[in-house]
């Protein structure tokens, strides 16, 4: 019998999010090796068109006014019933605010194993293996996905969104929506986060600082480097949590997803919650005194030096080069 891999399609403001395409790519990688089908689960209201470029064998479309916006109760109800009835081999969710609010409670309610922070899936000897990035990105855990059904939350990093798009999408099937009870969590309003003085999602050169800068005073030399290079300063969460930079400059799971030409990471370890938001950068350069810092797994170039020594020297070199030019 064909094994089914369910993929929960996330969408926001009328657009399918990248993590959905990455999961479709991961699922296809499995079904190309094992006899199986990729089944995309699309929940919404009057949003069937979102199925148009999903690289799945089948798209189950659940249309209901209560599904127009994500709410945990309604999603858990629809997907929980589906998993109970169909017992897929895998159900993939984004390791996102939406995905964890569905996968975690369903794992408990249906008594199914959940693998979190999964970066990639592969087939070995007819078994499905996973690699998960755990402990804030410091460790990679490998294992076999428990059968018969496992839930997985996925992070970006191993697949490209293009691999999960298709010009010839699968068959769209209008699925029946189970009775949706009134749930205490309701959608009231969508509020776009403030962009602040600059919109870091649109900047080509980002100078990003982490806890490694050690004190607020050291931001001055970072700003000088940014000015010399024509870039914008942003940060990891500890810097923002301490109030050294505003939340509009936060990069990561709880901040912004960025896609600059160059992302210069200074004193940033490379925790999952940070790096998941920088994978679309064209070039990542990391400066960190710890040669084992996970950020080096992602960086194209790196230096294991003290940023407080490097930054003033680099600013000076940039200024000299600018004068000569
Ligand atoms: C639900 C949740 C959401 C989160 N959201 C985010 C988010 O949106 N964004 C985010 O960034 N984090 C987020 N985090 C936190 C995340 O897990 C990490 O704790 C955080 O990213 C670590 O920041 P850091 O790399 O600056 O600090 P650390 O992990 O402490 O790393 C500091 C690095 O600086 C290096 N260093 C120290 N001194 C120097 C020096 N002088 N020169 C060079 N290198 C030096 C060290 O070797 C170290 O690698 C979230 C966590 C959770 C649980």
SSE arrangement:
Layout: E1 3-8, E2 11-12, E3 15-16, H1 18-31, E4 36-44, E5 58-63, H2 72-86, E6 90-94, H3 97-110, E7 114-124, E8 127-134, E9 139-144, E10 150-154, E11 171-175, E12 205-209, H4 219-229, E13 232-235, H5 237-241, E14 262-266, H6 272-275, E15 283-287, H7 295-298, E16 301-303, H8 307-324
Parallel strand pairs: 1-4, 1-6, 4-5, 5-11, 6-10, 7-10, 12-13, 12-14, 14-15, 15-16
Antiparallel strand pairs: 2-3, 7-8, 8-9
Describe this entry's structure for a reader.
By secondary structure, this protein is α/β, with parallel strands linked by helices. The chain has 8 helices and 16 strands. It has helices spanning 18-31, 72-86, 97-110, 219-229, 237-241, 272-275, 295-298, 307-324; strands at residues 3-8, 11-12, 15-16, 36-44, 58-63, 90-94, 114-124, 127-134, 139-144, 150-154, 171-175, 205-209, 232-235, 262-266, 283-287, 301-303. It has a 9-stranded mixed sheet with strand order 9-8-7-10-6-1-4-5-11. The chain has a 5-stranded parallel sheet with strand order 13-12-14-15-16. A two-stranded antiparallel sheet has the order 2-3. Strand 14, helix 6 and strand 15 (283-287) form a beta-alpha-beta unit. The longest helix is centred in the last third of the chain and has 18 residues, at 307-324. The chain is elongated, with a radius of gyration of 22 Å. It binds flavin-adenine dinucleotide. Residues 136, 210-212, 236-238, 250-255, 267-269, 271, 273-274, 287-290, 293, 306-308 line the site of flavin-adenine dinucleotide.
């Amino acid at each position: 019998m064909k094994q089914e891999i369910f993929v929960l399609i996330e969408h926001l403001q009328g657009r399918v999010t990248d993590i959905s395409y990455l999961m479709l790519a991961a699922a296809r990688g499995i079904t190309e090796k094992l006899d199986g089908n990729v089944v995309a689960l699309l929940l919404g209201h009057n949003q069937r068109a979102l199925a148009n470029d999903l690289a799945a064998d089948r798209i189950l479309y659940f249309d209901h006014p209560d599904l127009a916006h994500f709410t945990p109760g309604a999603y858990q109800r629809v997907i929980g019933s589906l998993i109970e009835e169909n017992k897929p081999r895998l159900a993939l969710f984004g390791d996102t605010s939406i995905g964890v609010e569905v996968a975690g409670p369903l794992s408990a309610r249906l008594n199914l194993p959940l693998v979190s922070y999964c970066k990639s899936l592969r087939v070995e000897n007819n078994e499905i293996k996973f690699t998960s990035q755990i402990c804030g990105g410091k460790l990679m855990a490998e294992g076999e996905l428990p059968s018969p059904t496992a839930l997985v939350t996925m992070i970006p990093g191993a697949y490209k969104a293009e691999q999960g798009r298709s010009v010839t999408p699968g068959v769209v099937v209008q699925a029946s929506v189970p009775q949706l009870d009134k749930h205490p969590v309701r959608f009231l309003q969508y509020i776009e986060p403030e962009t602040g003085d600059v919109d870091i999602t649109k900047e080509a050169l980002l100078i990003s600082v982490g806890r490694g800068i050690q004190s607020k005073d050291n931001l001055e030399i970072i700003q000088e480097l940014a000015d010399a290079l024509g870039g914008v300063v942003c940060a990891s969460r500890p810097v923002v949590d301490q109030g050294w930079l505003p939340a509009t400059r936060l990069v990561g799971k709880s901040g912004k997803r960025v896609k600059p030409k160059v992302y210069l990471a200074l004193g940033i370890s490379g925790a999952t919650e940070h790096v998941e938001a920088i994978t679309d950068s064209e070039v990542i350069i990391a400066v960190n005194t710890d040669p084992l810092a996970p950020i080096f797994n992602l960086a194209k170039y790196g230096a294991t030096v003290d940023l407080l020594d490097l930054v003033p020297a680099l600013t000076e070199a940039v200024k000299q080069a600018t004068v000569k030019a």
